[in-house]
Amino acid sequence: MTPLKKHLTFVLLSVTVLALITACGTPSTDSTEPAAAKSITVGLGSEPPNLDPRNYNYTAGTFAVAWQIFEPLVYHDTRTDELIPGLAESWEQIDPTTYEFKLREGVTWHDGEPFTADDVAWTLTRGPRPIQEFVLNPDQPVEVVDDYTIRVYTANPIGYFMVQSIALNLRIMPEHILAERYADCRTAMDEEGLDAETTGEICTEIEKNQVWTENIVGTGPFKLESWEPGVNIVLAANPDYWGGAPKIDELVFKWVEEEATRIINLESGEYDLILGVPDTDIERLEGEENISLLKSPGYGYDMITLNEAVPELADVRVRQAIAYAVDKESLMKLFPGVVTRTCGPLSTRSSFYNDTVNCYDYDPDQAKALLAEAGWEPGTSLTLKTPPNQQNEAQLIQRNLQDVGIDVELLTVETGAYYQEVRDGQSELALYGFSNIVDPDHMYWVFHKDWILGQASAYQNNTVSSLLEEGQTVTDQEQRRDIYNEAQQMIVDDDAVAVFLYSHDDVRAYRNDRITGLEEMPLPTDVVYWLRSADVVE
């Protein structure tokens, strides 16, 4: 920007004096320097593979960047377990399969084009994939009532539709930017039909393989300014944002895989905010004057899986004994101040958590009694599989089980292979966990006989599976709560499917001499909310 110049008028006594001044130097000026842009640098663990909201296989880095750009109709406020407005100001479930959304008026895309109900309709019907993934009525998935009212029709009642499908998995995209590339897909849908193999091939090629890399625009508080692969991504504030222009002018995202390096970069001031803090660094960082930690309640849980296909674990009394033998309070001391005890397959923060299940509080005597009752042979050995970063937990569990007569061999597996091995049933005992559980339908994908623990732990309870299927189709949330309470009681008390341990808080760190006004909200929506309301310390 060229500085403003204020020209002075001189009362000159003679042309000679003027000539002298001109020859000898530049006339004095008053300059007003432009205000420096308010910029912060965010440290990520990896570079986002893309910013395409059609690709739901997001990394944490993708969430951090893309969710500044694109928005949902509604957000899930995991502090209260309630839905809050996004691009929709209000919504109503008209009947078990019909939802009506009233959209915000006056919202524009980053290129200035107006946002309307047509964009929502196009996002949901652009190809077979969203219609099938959101279980929409294939004959009439949506109805545009007017420019700012849309109805969405599901194929059948879906209990998790608003929280999991609409709030978590849907980001609205601009029809005027993307419609052209879907021309062949839409033609195939009209001529061949939604379920035709040809339609699937054409639309899948567009949907998954033609990555959206140019002219990326959303409606969010920040817009894409530049992306230099391998270096950084820069977002600029959206001055026309419907929620008010952000106070921060620019977000610069950088990435480095090593956790220790991210911490060093934060301490040196190269990074202003990092989104993941290792447990081993929390206590030290809490003592640093210019660094603050932001802890958000965790919405996941850690557990020890117990593979029932292993003969030694087939007896429920042995599984219950293992649950009593593990000292959860001592395990929690490995993570001071950042874990919360959870006794079942949901976080205690979930409104669907059953707080009446058996917590299997540490009781080695009860464990020994159950083992004796089950005919356990002292010295019988089990293998506890663990990833490299959970060695301390594994060693404590090993000692706990040895104290009651169960020999345990530790087997460490490289992280890249670990989780797949466990899912494939290649473990006896294993440390496993989940995060960001926004709806109890998560239990279906873990404890149903056909899914994760159905394979990993040979868990085959038909009654539980039926309950979890029912929970997917009931839209009355109080009825759903009764269903999931019963399922949790059977999973924990009756079957002792796993040893449930605790929920990890999500911990971030930022420089308080650089950033102010961060708003706490747990993942996955927190990064958007923090940075739209934050400011730079001046």
Structure description:
The protein has 538 residues and is α+β, with helices and mostly antiparallel strands. The chain is 34% helix and 20% strand. It is built from 20 helices and 21 strands. The strands form five sheets. A seven-stranded mixed beta sheet has the order 8-9-10-1-11-19-12, with helices on both faces. A hairpin with a 3-residue loop joins strand 8 and strand 9 (232-237). Helix 2 packs across helix 20 (526-533), helix 7 (183-191) runs antiparallel to helix 8 (197-209) and helix 11 (316-325) packs antiparallel against helix 13. The longest helix is centred in the last third of the chain and has 18 residues, at 477-494. The model is unreliable at 1-31 (pLDDT under 50).
Brief synopsis:
The chain is α+β, with helices and mostly antiparallel strands and 538 residues long. The protein is built from 20 helices and 21 strands. The chain is 34% helix and 20% strand.
Radius of gyration: 28 Å
Structural class: alpha+beta
What's the quaternary structure here?
single chain
- Would you identify the regions where 5 or more consecutive residues have pLDDT less than 50? 1-31
Strand order of the largest sheet: 8-9-10-1-11-19-12
Number of helices: 20
Strand content: 15-25%
What overall geometry do the principal axes of the alpha carbons give? globular
> Helical percent range?
25-40%
Mean pLDDT: 88
- Sheet with most strands: 7 strands, mixed
Record field, number of beta strands: 21
The separation of the N and C termini measures 22 Å
